[in-house]
Design a protein that fits this description.
Elements lengths: L3 E3 L7 E6 L2 E3 L8 H4 L2 E8 L4 E7 L8 H9 L3 E3 L1 H7 L4 H18 L10 E3 L6 E3 L5 E2 L4 E10 L2 E7 L9 E4 L6 H13 L3 E12 L4 E10 L12 E8 L12 H10 L8
Parallel strand pairs: 1-5, 10-14
Antiparallel strand pairs: 2-3, 2-6, 4-5, 7-8, 8-9, 10-11, 10-12, 11-15, 13-14
Length: about 270
């Protein structure tokens, strides 16, 4: 009864209750047996007091889901987009549960029919996959590889702001292209967005980022030469070298980007002196 049974509406908004920065999801007690027939296992998370399973209601919600939605609203649940959840909720495993559940919901919703023969895809019984029972085609979850790059020049970090979307400070970021190593992605993205050549590329850590179906891989590197910025105005509205003490962090600590800005600002590893 403590397991979470999640539901997304047709616009990708998740049913939640939010109080003091904490998320509450619908549980098994909020559903009846007819709903359970459309639920599929997502993952389990170890919390401090217990291990909780997370399930997703599949079926008609990929088309309409108005019946499910109205019943949850009657029980006090509201529907928030993943971006709204990111802005409203504090750090915690519930937030990343929401992100990862969205990643999987998006995959299920976008892959209802086989791309080879157009027949209906069905969840595989042995692995995380969708299988076509007509032609045998198997579809696995889509995961987009992307890099986050902290470019350093002496006591400064290269900060950016996107032209569209997220409004707070960020780092250079971009997706890996076909036939490209991660290090080549770092070099290309920094050059394309800011006109800066880099060296001494070193891996920091990674983070799954389900709200965009990404796996983010963080790298630090150093600017070559004077580090003159030639900003791509189609991608960015701001790019500047910012001294450690002047770095303004993002409003919450959810993202790998924010962590990388913080470790440079506060001289934490790998920048501890």
């Amino acid at each position: 009864k403590e397991d979470a049974v999640l539901f997304f509406d047709g616009e990708g908004r998740l049913s939640v209750k939010e109080s003091n920065g904490k998320l509450e999801f619908p549980g098994a007690k909020h559903w009846d047996d007819r709903d359970a027939a459309h639920a599929i296992y997502l993952f389990s998370i170890d919390f401090s007091t217990d291990t909780r399973g997370f399930f997703l209601v599949l079926g008609e919600q990929v088309q309409d889901g108005s019946d499910y939605k109205s019943r949850l609203q009657e029980q006090g649940f509201t529907f928030l987009s993943i971006r709204e959840i990111r802005d409203a909720a504090g750090p915690g495993r519930e937030v990343f549960a929401a992100f990862t559940a969205y990643h999987l919901w998006k995959w299920y919703a976008d892959n209802r029919y086989c791309g080879k023969c157009a027949q209906r895809l069905m969840p595989d019984q042995k692995e995380r996959a969708l299988r076509c029972t007509a032609c045998g085609n198997v579809v696995y979850p889509r995961i987009n590889p992307a890099v986050i790059v902290g470019v350093v020049k002496e006591d400064c970090l290269l900060l950016t702001k996107y032209r569209r979307g997220y409004a707070h400070n960020a780092l250079v970021a971009g997706f890996t292209e076909i036939g490209e190593t991660l290090e080549e992605t770092v070099e290309r993205e920094v050059l394309e967005e800011t006109g800066i050549h880099v060296r001494n590329i070193r891996y920091y850590k990674s983070q799954p980022w389900g709200m965009a179906q990404d796996i983010l891989m963080g790298f630090f590197c150093e600017a070559e030469g004077e580090g003159e910025i030639r900003m791509d105005e189609n991608e960015l509205k701001y790019a500047a070298w910012v001294k450690r003490e002047e770095i303004e962090l993002q409003p919450n600590s959810l993202s790998l980007t924010n962590e990388m800005m913080r470790v440079f600002k506060e001289r934490l590893a790998p920048f501890a002196s």
